[in-house]
Amino acid sequence: MDERPLLETLAARLRERPFEVDVAIAGLVGLVTVVAPAQSYYANEVPAFVLGVLLVAPLAWRRRAPVPAAAVVTVAGLLELVAGTDFLAANVSALLMVYALAAYAPPWAARAGLLVGLAGAVLAGLRWYATDSSDALLVTVGAIAVSVVAAWALGRLRRSRLGEILSLAERARLLEVERDQEMRLAATAERARIAREMHDVVAHSLSVVIAQADGGRYAGRTDPEAATGALEAIAATGRQALTDMRALLGVLREDRREEYAPQPDVAAIPVLVDDVRASGLDVDLLVEGEPRAMAAGPQLAAYRIVQESLTNVLKHAGPACRAWVRLHWRPDVLELSVLDDGRGAGAVTGDGLGQGLRGMAERAQLHRGRLEAGPRSGGGFGVHAVLPLGGAR
């Protein structure tokens, strides 16, 4: 059987009950230094026993109240000097109190304990060993003084160790708080991302479906084939929206391990433009410059900005309008513009909540870019975004 876990468990339980441990130590010291040698007190037996108890009993409060406990031990030691008793074995409690002051008391009390202990060494030597030779007196005083200094030094080491433990505990607490804050910020950012994705998927898909349904309704009276094509486009758009929705909601399930299709990028913008054109909007795509390598995050942002802008054109620009999508590759950025010649000012209100324009601006800012949107001076509405080729901050 491994004894280490048992010892560690016992040590942990003892650390949880410091006062009970101190009471047990005081009782053990009293048994060894007061009760056991009681028969050897040939003279002044009662005062010696009482003084021994006064010296030992305060050890029970050496951690809970070190300064008052040390004061009681000091008073008992002074009474011992004038009581006429022999040198008591219970005086070992003075060393324990010097240790306790150095370890658990305020700094001023720790220094005072050292000075009182050294003074007690001199007084004890003069009281009980003054009749001996000067060399014996010096040896006695020196031995007691060295013991006092050793006890004080051990107490200082204990204080340093306790300080390190408290520092580590505080650091662990701060790290836990920081981790919780990071988790909350990450959750907030993820909710915002999911909200943007949901808005983009739902708004775009519904706009295309509505446009196709309107066109199919009018064409159904005169051109059944066109109506059938509109219904097929509605079905395809609905299936794609459902697939995107499932992929988006799948990230909320921690126990899911499926692989989802990659997120759309700049290369998918021509397909997006074709889909919107098939829904009835006259839209042209213009690409300038040589396409360059671009991080996945800015590519998704570019696609979503174009998607949301074309969705707004379908919803707000009005009938018989035209739109232009322009991609301009520069050495370090991608500039994209979505312009239309529709009603313009009507697009400013967006969906009534501003989620579309705000979401586009958030996407651009997330990747160190910028976005401007508003009515054009010559009529219509325009969205202009600049996205660095690198990743997010």
Automatic annotation (TrEMBL):
Fetch the InterPro entries from UniProt. Answer: DUF7134, HATPase_C_sf, HATPase_dom, Sensor_HK_TwoCompSys, Sig_transdc_His_kin_sub3_dim/P
Location of the Histidine kinase/HSP90-like ATPase domain: 297-391
Q: Tell whether Kinase is among the UniProt keywords.
A: yes
GO terms, molecular function: ATP binding; phosphorelay sensor kinase activity; protein dimerization activity
> A GO CC term?
membrane
User: What domain of life is recorded for the organism?
Assistant: Bacteria
One short Pfam name that applies is DUF7134
Q: Kindly give the CDD domains that the UniProt entry links to this protein.
A: HATPase_UhpB-NarQ-NarX-like
Presence of the UniProt keyword Nucleus in the record? no
Q: Where are the transmembrane segments?
A: 21-42, 87-105, 112-130, 136-155
Q: Which SUPFAM superfamilies match?
A: ATPase domain of HSP90 chaperone/DNA topoisomerase II/histidine kinase
Tell me its EC number(s), please: 2.7.13.3
Keyword set, alphabetical order: ATP-binding, Kinase, Membrane, Nucleotide-binding, Phosphoprotein, Transferase, Transmembrane, Transmembrane helix, Two-component regulatory system
Instruction: Show the catalytic activity.
Output: ATP + protein L-histidine = ADP + protein N-phospho-L-histidine
PANTHER family named among the record's database cross-references: NITRATE/NITRITE SENSOR PROTEIN NARX-RELATED (PTHR24421), NITRATE_NITRITE SENSOR PROTEIN NARQ (PTHR24421:SF10)
Put simply, this protein is called histidine kinase
Q: Which organism is it from?
A: Geodermatophilus aquaeductus
